[in-house]
Amino acid sequence: MKETRCFPNSPSSVTQARRYVQELLAATPRDVADAVAVMTSELATNSIRHTASEFEVGIDRTSRTIRVEVTDRGSGAPTVFSPDPTATSGRGLHIVEQLSDDWGVTAVTDRNTKTVWFTVSLPSR
């Protein structure tokens, strides 16, 4: 079952989104839940920085995977950067790329929304 929650375009929403996924994943192995929380924070930060819209976080958990989606009404396509080591930003999607099993972007042009998503496999029991 997919759980969703909307957050306002505010820096405090990054913390709220992170806590939201941590609460929903309380029964998940801690290392997985922590990685999902970090990636969600990165996507929430990107949404706040690059759009003027609220954003929605969706989490769908099965027995084998966790899929997180962050949807906003921003234009443009997210891009993975290779920032200079002294840069203070630009690593968010690189972090998502490294920590997730898969990730991508789905744009819905007629609604002017985009969803950045990632998946993480759960360890076998």
Question: What is the structure about, briefly put?
Answer:
With 125 residues, the protein is of the alpha+beta class. The chain is built from 3 helices and 5 strands, in the order E-H-H-E-E-H-E-E.
Notes on the protein architecture:
- The chain has one domain (2-121): 2-Layer Sandwich (Heat Shock Protein 90), CATH 3.30.565.
- Helices cover 34% and strands 30% of the residues.
- The protein is built from three helices and five strands.
- The chain is globular and about 40 Å long.
- The two termini are 21 Å apart.
- 27% of the residues are buried.
Alpha-beta classification: alpha+beta
Shape from CA axes?
globular
> Helical stretch count?
3
Strand arrangement, major sheet: 1-2-3-5-4
Overall average residue pLDDT: 89
**Largest sheet features:** 5 strands, antiparallel
Low-confidence stretches: none
Radius of gyration: 14 Å
CATH top level is Alpha Beta
Write the H/E string, N to C.
EHHEEHEE
Number of domains: 1
What CATH architecture label applies? Answer: 2-Layer Sandwich
Beta-strand residue fraction: 25-35%
The termini sit apart by 21 Å
CATH fold call:
Heat Shock Protein 90
